Amino acid sequence: MDDDTRAWLRSIFGEPPPRDIVPGAGLTRDDVLRMNAMTGKPVTATYPGDVITDVDGIPIGVHPSRTEHITFGGVALTRSQLADLDLTPEDVPNVHVLPDPTEGESK
Length: 107
Fold this sequence. Notes:
Blueprint: H1 3-13, H2 29-38, E1 42-47, E2 51-53, E3 59-62, E4 66-71, E5 76-78, H3 79-84, E6 96-98
Parallel strand pairs: 5-6
Antiparallel strand pairs: 1-4, 2-3
Protein backbone atom coordinates (compact mmCIF):
# COMPACT_ATOMS: atom_id res chain seq x y z
CA MET A 1 0.00 0.00 0.00
CA ASP A 2 1.48 3.40 -0.91
CA ASP A 3 1.55 6.55 1.24
CA ASP A 4 -1.24 8.27 -0.72
CA THR A 5 -3.58 5.34 -0.07
CA ARG A 6 -2.67 5.32 3.64
CA ALA A 7 -3.35 9.06 3.88
CA TRP A 8 -6.68 8.64 2.08
CA LEU A 9 -7.73 5.81 4.41
CA ARG A 10 -6.76 7.86 7.48
CA SER A 11 -8.82 10.79 6.20
CA ILE A 12 -11.87 8.51 5.92
CA PHE A 13 -11.58 7.14 9.45
CA GLY A 14 -10.73 10.52 11.00
CA GLU A 15 -8.79 11.21 14.15
CA PRO A 16 -7.57 9.39 16.09
CA PRO A 17 -6.37 6.74 13.66
CA PRO A 18 -7.55 3.17 14.32
CA ARG A 19 -5.64 1.31 17.07
CA ASP A 20 -4.07 -1.10 14.57
CA ILE A 21 -2.25 1.81 12.89
CA VAL A 22 -0.92 3.48 16.03
CA PRO A 23 1.63 1.35 17.89
CA GLY A 24 0.73 0.73 21.51
CA ALA A 25 2.93 1.36 24.51
CA GLY A 26 3.89 -2.32 24.78
CA LEU A 27 3.46 -4.79 27.59
CA THR A 28 3.25 -3.53 31.15
CA ARG A 29 4.15 -5.33 34.36
CA ASP A 30 0.42 -5.84 35.07
CA ASP A 31 -0.08 -7.31 31.57
CA VAL A 32 2.63 -9.92 32.14
CA LEU A 33 1.35 -10.80 35.63
CA ARG A 34 -2.18 -11.17 34.23
CA MET A 35 -0.98 -13.39 31.36
CA ASN A 36 1.02 -15.49 33.82
CA ALA A 37 -2.17 -16.06 35.86
CA MET A 38 -4.28 -16.81 32.74
CA THR A 39 -1.95 -19.47 31.29
CA GLY A 40 -3.83 -22.72 30.79
CA LYS A 41 -7.23 -21.16 31.49
CA PRO A 42 -10.18 -20.71 29.11
CA VAL A 43 -10.46 -17.27 27.47
CA THR A 44 -12.53 -15.66 24.72
CA ALA A 45 -10.60 -14.53 21.64
CA THR A 46 -12.01 -12.17 19.00
CA TYR A 47 -10.49 -12.25 15.52
CA PRO A 48 -11.17 -9.22 13.31
CA GLY A 49 -12.80 -9.76 9.94
CA ASP A 50 -10.89 -9.52 6.67
CA VAL A 51 -11.01 -6.31 4.66
CA ILE A 52 -13.18 -6.46 1.53
CA THR A 53 -11.79 -4.60 -1.48
CA ASP A 54 -13.27 -3.64 -4.83
CA VAL A 55 -11.73 -4.62 -8.19
CA ASP A 56 -9.22 -1.75 -7.87
CA GLY A 57 -8.06 -2.89 -4.43
CA ILE A 58 -9.84 -0.07 -2.58
CA PRO A 59 -11.25 -1.16 0.81
CA ILE A 60 -15.05 -1.09 0.77
CA GLY A 61 -15.96 -3.08 3.86
CA VAL A 62 -14.97 -5.61 6.47
CA HIS A 63 -16.20 -9.17 7.06
CA PRO A 64 -17.69 -9.77 10.52
CA SER A 65 -15.36 -10.57 13.40
CA ARG A 66 -15.45 -14.05 14.88
CA THR A 67 -15.26 -15.01 18.52
CA GLU A 68 -13.88 -18.32 19.78
CA HIS A 69 -13.40 -19.89 23.19
CA ILE A 70 -9.82 -21.08 23.52
CA THR A 71 -7.24 -21.99 26.17
CA PHE A 72 -4.61 -19.30 26.72
CA GLY A 73 -1.29 -20.93 25.88
CA GLY A 74 0.95 -18.42 27.61
CA VAL A 75 3.57 -15.91 26.60
CA ALA A 76 7.31 -15.96 25.90
CA LEU A 77 9.59 -13.08 26.85
CA THR A 78 13.34 -12.59 27.02
CA ARG A 79 15.19 -12.13 30.28
CA SER A 80 15.87 -8.47 29.46
CA GLN A 81 12.17 -7.85 28.72
CA LEU A 82 11.30 -9.23 32.15
CA ALA A 83 14.07 -7.17 33.76
CA ASP A 84 12.75 -4.01 32.05
CA LEU A 85 9.41 -4.69 33.79
CA ASP A 86 11.17 -5.34 37.12
CA LEU A 87 10.22 -9.04 37.05
CA THR A 88 12.24 -12.23 37.44
CA PRO A 89 11.46 -15.70 36.05
CA GLU A 90 10.52 -16.71 39.61
CA ASP A 91 7.85 -13.95 39.71
CA VAL A 92 6.12 -15.37 36.63
CA PRO A 93 6.55 -19.17 36.57
CA ASN A 94 4.06 -19.66 33.69
CA VAL A 95 5.95 -17.30 31.35
CA HIS A 96 8.36 -19.04 29.00
CA VAL A 97 11.66 -17.17 29.44
CA LEU A 98 13.88 -17.02 26.38
CA PRO A 99 17.57 -16.20 26.39
CA ASP A 100 18.44 -12.78 25.03
CA PRO A 101 19.65 -12.88 21.42
CA THR A 102 23.07 -11.57 22.46
CA GLU A 103 23.38 -13.76 25.57
CA GLY A 104 26.61 -15.74 25.56
CA GLU A 105 28.40 -13.46 23.07
CA SER A 106 31.73 -12.10 24.17
CA LYS A 107 32.48 -8.43 23.75
